[in-house]
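note to self: dont lose this again. the chain is below, predicted strucutre after it. 395 aa total, dont forget to put it in the shared folder this time
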Amino acid sequence: MATYKTITLRRGKEESLQRFHPWVFSGAIDHADPAIEEGDLVTVYTHDGTLVGNGHYQIGSIAVRMLTFDDTPVDDDFYAARLARAFAVRQALQLIRPDNNAFRLVHGEGDFLPGLVVDIYGHTAVLQAHSPGMHFARAAIARALTALPDGLVQNVYYKSETTLPFKAQLDPQNDYIIGSYDTDIAMENGLRFHVDWLKGQKTGFFVDQRENRALLERYARGRRVLNMFCYTGGFSFYAMRGGAVAVHSVDSSAKAIRLTDANVELNFPGDPRHTSSADDAFRFLDAMPAAAYDLIILDPPAFAKHKNVLRNALRGYQRLNAKALEKIRPGGILFTFSCSQVVTKDDFRCAVFSAAAQTGRRVRILHQLHQPADHPINIYHPEGEYLKGLVLYVE
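---
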């Protein structure tokens, strides 16, 4: 049975926890067990000794990520129950189908498992720990994953080398916890793609754009499409299925371009409509002839991971969108996104507004986009809303 260290809050610092916000900041702590260590299970108490709940301790600004708001023990049964609930939600979303076997099973705080991300690709679960506590619980989590119904998960790959706090000195090794390599091909809405969970970004594919890719497919017919920051080419092969007359994929990474080409070939072998190039986005847009494309996707990596670079990030979004709005053909459609958590919807919309004003073109908002339902937002944790996007019609 796990041993819990104790943490006592300063007077009045329990208010956010009473509203079920799952983070305890270091400044809210009055005193802690002197033997406490990174990743320990802790029980949190108010200043007057009232139990708040259990969570994982870590060194840093966010000192505790709360797993329960009562005395429920955090053990193998706990993880099995939380994962079963997360699975039931994905069943309700009808994401587990013959034509779709890629989705997010656990989205951290959104699934009441802060510090944990699990993406499913076929029979392989890719598990990422974002906290030392989840790192130490990885074996129990892997066992619970393989116990899910219908043999959904047969292999569990652990991929946390880049997601755990560097100062924790945990030295995680990316490797299979259970099972082994099966296949790297998964399916989303009937389209197949290679997933590089061994060396690719995040868990190997950005499943958070599934519904936005499906929306783009509806607009692609008869259009010339530019997919900037294409990574694995998801928007590209959706555009091709939607009837685009030409699709050009661009990414600064030659490796990403090779993966995009492989994914397009998997779905549309030998199709001459697709071309690709490895190039810097701003350099490419500067050199691009005006009116060359009438559907452009801008899906860059996070421009801001911390608030202290927010201003520069917003200038970057403004500059990027101004280039695309300036060059897109009249009657064109721009899909533009930000995945920076510190950039709010209003911040992003203001940056795109400034870009439109700079170009002087008439622009309408057709859709306001966000993350899909398998990336749920805990209503008590608004910080979980990170993906935002706009679909614009440009005259």
